[in-house]
Amino acid sequence: MLDLECLRLIWWVLFGVLFIGFAVTDGFDLGIAALLPFVAKNDLERRVVLNTIGPVWEGNQVWIILAAGAIFAAWPLVYAVAFSGLYFVILLLLLTMGISRPVSFKYRSKLKNPVWRFCWDAAVFIGGLVPALIFGLLVGNVLQGLPFRYDEQIRLSYEGGFWALFNPFACWCALTSLFMLIMHGGIYLALKTEALLANRALRFSKGAAILFMLFFAGGGLWAAYAIVGYEVTSVLSPEGYSNPLHKEVVKRLGAWLLNYSRYPFTLAAPVLGFLGAAAAMLSVQGKALKTAFLCSALSLFGVISTVGVSMFPFIIPSSLDPASSLLVWDASSTQLTLFLMLIAALIFVPLIVLYTAWVYYVLRDKVTAKEIKENI
After folding, report:
1. Neighbours of 101 (CB within 10 A)
2. Can you give the pTM of this predicted structure?
């Protein structure tokens, strides 16, 4: 059996992989949904747009379900903080992404009434826009630390309010997330459609890419030089018990830059975030849309990796009591639990990847207005 330090590190990486998988797949779903009222000018075009993601959105959401399950089983203390302290935000995420959007796909075509379809199209739009913003909002708040603490009996108390989550830096991160997913979704929509729809999608995608790079750069500077980060000042045992109170943590300006000086190779993450977006736009100009989508996916990989690298070994820092912060080394499940979960992950995650790849291969053709008309 692998030692506890190795297992914790593996699951930290897998945790990131699951979120990257979700961002790359369901991310374009959210981006396309957020673009729906802007790229589609009539009912036929809206049907084309919805049919580009209709067959795949359910499978794409498997990644976020896996991520939530991984948090529950591998990082129970993280799950307790995130799903209790951020309850109302996660509920809003569930209502928009997990309920209103799926229902709108199912019910939109039941009636031809324009008002009926307008209402469901609005639900699709909200189901793309709101989750795209919420994911960035959550990242922005985690980077600043959440207001929770543990007492001597490891009992959790969360002392934050709902509206406090909408602080300037978190809202900036929310917009960064939105522009990033619109860039990604616009490219996928262009890949799957023709003529006017594809051209409109690419215009929005290019504009979103420029805004994303500006906001990503601005957010990085803001986090590095104006947001107080966290640093562990005591000696930690990577194989110690999962008790978040056995350490010393200080708040320090610029603390989120420390890993880049300690491990220079990690600079590849933010660089990939920028270069991926820039390369995607250059590929769009050259009409190489498959290459553009791959570059866009690499950009998402770089952005999410940047957050993980900057915070390591923190998972959720505590702004209320820094010593209660949750780290890779003190918030995990037991060695046996992590090992058994790893075996399950090594079996099922490749199967999910293979099945997903097969589905996209089968559905690789474009969605056309002619096809929609023939199947009315």
Report:
1. 25
2. 0.94
